[in-house]
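Risk register update: the risk of archive-format incompatibility is retired. Evidence:
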Amino acid sequence: MSPSRARSRVAVVLTSAVLAVVATPAIASAHVTVSSTDAAPGGYGKLTFRVPNESDTASTVALRIQVPEESALASLRAQPVPGWTVTLTTAQLDEPLEAHGSEITEYVSVVEFRADEGGGIAPGEFQEFALSGGAFPEDVEQLTFPAVQTYSDGSESAWIEPTVDGQAEPERPAPVLSLTAAAADAPAADAPAAQAEPAAAEDDGGSRTATAALVVAIAGLVAGLAGLGLGWSARRRTVAP
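Archived output:
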């Protein structure tokens, strides 16, 4: 193999590695997800759905969140979002729930956020939608909330595929809320609100660490490419008459 072809192959490999490092965080953060800091088993809490726009040309104009009966909550409310209209749809329960001594026979089965005309989540942006409810089941650790994301061009992304332990993550996983993680992250009930601030600072630190690691990785790959070029130049000078 000629020196020029060898250099070209190595350059392609290093370039691909750089692109992979840069692209990985974007891919990982593209899913519609749900999280909470206070949704503990048996309690009430706030659920935050984060919706990134994956399209380069269309805006996200609607998010439809499905609440399966196994994830049913006796109480569920939506936080208003400026520029969006929210609609709650109810369904009958096969097995009634009990809340505060009362029997609940229907629950909110679908929550839909729809953008006003001309609005939505533009390409390169994301939006968060919040729900508040409970009581969360005491005998499960996770709740699944399938969601469908609608774009202004009429296309949809159905985040409805179940995630199975021991198997690769599906392409469009349904948002999963971990109640045990939420309980662990929640501040103590008798702790002042100010004590919850270090957690946010820790998250910021983690983001800075991840960013620094990414920069170092890219710099290392670029340095390797530069070193390769210098090595070939030195070799050519050595073998020259």
